[in-house]
């Protein structure tokens, strides 16, 4: 793909794979709107007042159909939006085309190289000479990382005249990031500091991005306020759990069409995502085994009738392996070598380091056979047996399918909209410092409430006496903040 920014007849910038898919994208966006009552409720409630008027929002989050509904909700509330994907395989090209044609600047296509991915990220941040965005929607923290690394490198350059050195790291992706920042310092040695000065804050979508933010807060290096959307109950206990319960089997089936029933499936990690994955595999008839480091999560798995073992115990017997740990080095090449012929190996955690892709790619004599994009068979020379790796070790549900269904993403993204509104409305009040915050419980309950009608639910109303008896207000919040659901 030639990396040249294009413009719509109205002058909006974009780079997508195929603008002729915009009509198809629009039809699917219209279907999604009916399934996303939280976002449409935000449009109805806040749209007329345009509370985000004047706000520039940069987003780095899978450019899918449901994200299109998020982007167009932010636009309906008055914001100007520039967007890229947070994963090289997760864009739905028809969604990207429809949004680029109709509503926001999009830089994303399915199957980006890492170099293209970071070019798109840089374009989404590029609001021209007046600095960067006011607000960021991040998923996994790549935009946040780029700004922090950019500021750090500019300060070092000012101090010592030293430019970042891509050769200083073995990590291929970080090498690209350092190269990008090096180029930008040569062009404008204050670019990232100008971006930082304008920024009001970020709302972060996922567990892994929140971990990065909390590390920065602990080190004292966080440069702007952050709202942790992931830990809204209506996000992590819904998207991570029920979303993965739906989209893991979707990814497995689209990629391999393998019969899940009867197979032995190993789920590494039994947190929110692992619970959803294990439930899906179990209900499809697989014999599920979990690996865990945390005794509480291990005991939870056992209470569901799921054995807990180590990977070493089960590697030669299992048929399907799924990593969900948000940790690194979970399935190594020495594990993969011992697996059955055509065992399926995939990851649904955020990054591509749960599975040892580097070890696999550099294994002497290994033969990679691409069956179709994002489905590869890797054949070991000694045994001539192969394993099937999905989405090159990146998130299988977004690489091999289309991510979670729209309804559950409506819960996640309604939290995103509320977080963006909160950061923007409080931009001059000092309410948010350079720390990581979660949304208050009454807003979490509001997100859930917005989704009940669509499913035909009727809530029971507390009487005044009942409310007093359990020490809550009639209108909520109904639980203390420490309640775990
Ligand atoms: N693909 C998606 O659609 C999607 C959706 C939501 C979250 N995520 C990502 O999925 C990952 C998991 O999120 P989560 O909310 O379930 O996190 P979590 O913290 O609830 O769960 C992770 C679990 O892995 C366990 N673990 C850590 N190291 C381990 C190891 N070496 N072996 C076995 N278990 C180990 C932890 O004890 C924990 O229980 C994150 O990277 C998150 O960003 C992906």
UniProtKB/TrEMBL annotation:
Catalyzed chemical reaction(s): S-adenosyl-L-homocysteine + H2O = L-homocysteine + adenosine
SMART domains: AdoHcyase (SM00996), AdoHcyase_NAD (SM00997)
Pathway: Amino-acid biosynthesis; L-homocysteine biosynthesis; L-homocysteine from S-adenosyl-L-homocysteine: step 1/1
Annotated GO MF terms: adenosylhomocysteinase activity
GO cellular-component term (any): cytosol
Keyword Hydrolase belongs to the record: yes
Protein keywords: Hydrolase, NAD, One-carbon metabolism
Stored Gene3D superfamilies: Adenosylhomocysteinase-like, NAD(P)-binding Rossmann-like Domain
Binding site for substrate: 64, 139, 205, 235, 239
Cofactor(s) essential for the protein: NAD(+)
Superkingdom as given in the UniProt entry: Eukaryota
Protein name (record): Adenosylhomocysteinase
Protein source organism: Actinidia chinensis var. chinensis (Chinese soft-hair kiwi)
Source taxonomy: Eukaryota, Viridiplantae, Streptophyta, Embryophyta, Tracheophyta
């Amino acid at each position: 793909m030639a990396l040249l920014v294009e413009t719509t007849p109205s002058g909006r910038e974009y780079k997508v794979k195929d603008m002729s898919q915009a009509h198809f994208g629009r039809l699917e966006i219209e279907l999604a709107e009916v399934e996303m009552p939280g976002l449409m409720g935000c449009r109805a409630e806040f749209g007329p007042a345009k509370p985000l008027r004047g706000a520039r929002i940069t987003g780095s989050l899978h450019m899918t159909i449901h994200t299109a509904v998020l982007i167009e909700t932010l636009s309906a509330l008055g914001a100007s939006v520039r967007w890229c994907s947070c994963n090289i395989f997760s864009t739905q090209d028809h969604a990207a085309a429809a949004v680029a044609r109709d509503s926001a600047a999009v830089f994303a296509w399915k199957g980006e190289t890492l170099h293209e991915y970071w070019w798109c990220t840089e374009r989404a941040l590029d609001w021209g000479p007046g600095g960067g965005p006011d607000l960021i929607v991040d998923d996994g923290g790549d935009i946040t990382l780029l700004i922090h690394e950019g500021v750090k490198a500019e300060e070092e350059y000012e101090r010592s005249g030293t430019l970042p050195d891509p050769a200083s790291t073995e990590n291929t992706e970080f090498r690209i990031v350092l190269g990008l920042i090096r180029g930008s310092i040569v062009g404008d040695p204050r670019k990232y500091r100008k971006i930082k000065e304008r920024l009001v804050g970020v709302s972060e979508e996922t567990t892994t991005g929140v971990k990065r933010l909390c590390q920065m807060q602990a080190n004292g290096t966080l440069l702007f306020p952050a709202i942790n959307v992931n830990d809204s109950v209506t996000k992590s206990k819904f998207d991570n759990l029920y979303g993965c319960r739906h989209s893991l089997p979707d990814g497995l089936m689209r990629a391999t069409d393998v019969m899940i029933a009867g197979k032995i499936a190993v789920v590494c990690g039994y947190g929110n995502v692992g619970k959803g994955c294990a439930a899906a595999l179990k209900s499809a008839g697989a014999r599920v085994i979990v690996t865990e480091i945390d005794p509480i999560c291990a005991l939870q798995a056992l209470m569901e009738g799921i054995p807990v073992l180590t990977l070493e115990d089960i590697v030669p017997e299992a048929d399907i392996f799924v990593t969900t740990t948000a940790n690194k080095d979970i399935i190594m090449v020495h594990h993969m070598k011992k697996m059955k012929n055509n065992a399926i190996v995939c990851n649904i955690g955020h990054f591509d380091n749960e599975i040892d892709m580097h070890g696999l790619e550099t294994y002497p004599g290994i033969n990679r056979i691409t069956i179709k994009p994002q489905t590869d068979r890797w054949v070991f020379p000694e045994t001539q047996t192969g394993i099937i790796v999905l989405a090159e070790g990146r998130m299988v549900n977004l690489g091999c399918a289309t991510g979670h269904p729209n309804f559950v993403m409506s819960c996640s993204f309604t939290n995103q909209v509320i977080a963006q509104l909160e950061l923007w409305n409080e931009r001059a009040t000092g309410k948010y410092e350079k720390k990581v915050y979660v949304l208050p419980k009454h807003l979490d309950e509001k997100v859930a409430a917005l989704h009940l009608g669509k499913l035909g639910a009727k809530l029971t109303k507390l009487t005044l006496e009942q409310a007093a008896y359990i020490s809550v207000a009639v209108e909520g919040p109904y639980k203390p903040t420490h309640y775990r659901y």
